[in-house]
């Protein structure tokens, strides 16, 4: 039986993430190994159909509440020739304020979702599986307060074939993370 902390995964059976490194992107597995073992034990992983990795399809297929799914979006902010990246973690029923708050945080004239190729190349993760666990160390990780306050959220695992479940507070304690009021709209 799945740990009750991972019930946000709906009908899926989860196991401790470090028990199944085959279900994790390489940067994710590495980052989880660097966590305090007690924190790493709070992260569950469940195998899914990779064709159902997108949030709406995942939630419908597996009975996971959309209000417990958090999307990690990679934002590219540009000023002149310089591009800066950040990741935003917001609940799936909200949107990140990319053109306002995130653009200002990156001190950019223009900000938008990073092109898929750039996001994949920069993170070492699969598109549709990008997660805040294991992001490049120099990137800010902006987290919506509702995510940080959630008892558990579903996020990507670095690959399309699985999902992670973890406490929102743990997501908010990841390297580079900052809880930002007004991030989600």
UniProtKB/TrEMBL annotation:
Domain of life, source organism: Bacteria
Organism: Pseudonocardia bannensis
Domain YbaK/aminoacyl-tRNA synthetase-associated: 50-169
Protein name: YbaK/aminoacyl-tRNA synthetase-associated domain-containing protein
GO molecular function: aminoacyl-tRNA deacylase activity
SUPFAM superfamilies cross-referenced by the UniProt entry: YbaK/ProRS associated domain
Pfam families tied to this protein: tRNA_edit (PF04073)
């Amino acid at each position: 039986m799945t740990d009750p902390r991972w019930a946000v995964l709906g009908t899926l059976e989860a196991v401790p993430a470090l028990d199944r490194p085959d279900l994790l992107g390489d940067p994710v597995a590495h980052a989880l190994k660097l966590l305090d073992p007690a924190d790493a034990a709070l992260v569950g992983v469940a195998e899914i159909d990779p064709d159902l990795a997108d949030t709406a399809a995942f939630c419908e297929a597996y009975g996971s509440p959309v209000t417990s799914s958090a999307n990690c979006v990679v934002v590219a902010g540009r000023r002149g020739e310089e591009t800066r990246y950040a990741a935003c973690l917001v609940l799936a029923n909200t949107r990140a304020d990319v053109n306002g708050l995130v653009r200002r945080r990156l001190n950019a004239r223009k900000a938008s979702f990073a092109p898929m190729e750039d996001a994949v190349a920069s993170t070492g993760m699969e598109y549709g599986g990008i997660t805040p666990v294991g992001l490049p160390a120099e990137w800010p990780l902006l987290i919506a307060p509702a995510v940080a306050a959630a008892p558990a959220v579903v996020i990507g695992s670095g690959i399309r074939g699985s999902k992670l479940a973890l406490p929102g507070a743990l997501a908010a304690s990841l390297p580079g993370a900052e809880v930002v009021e007004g991030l989600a709209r």
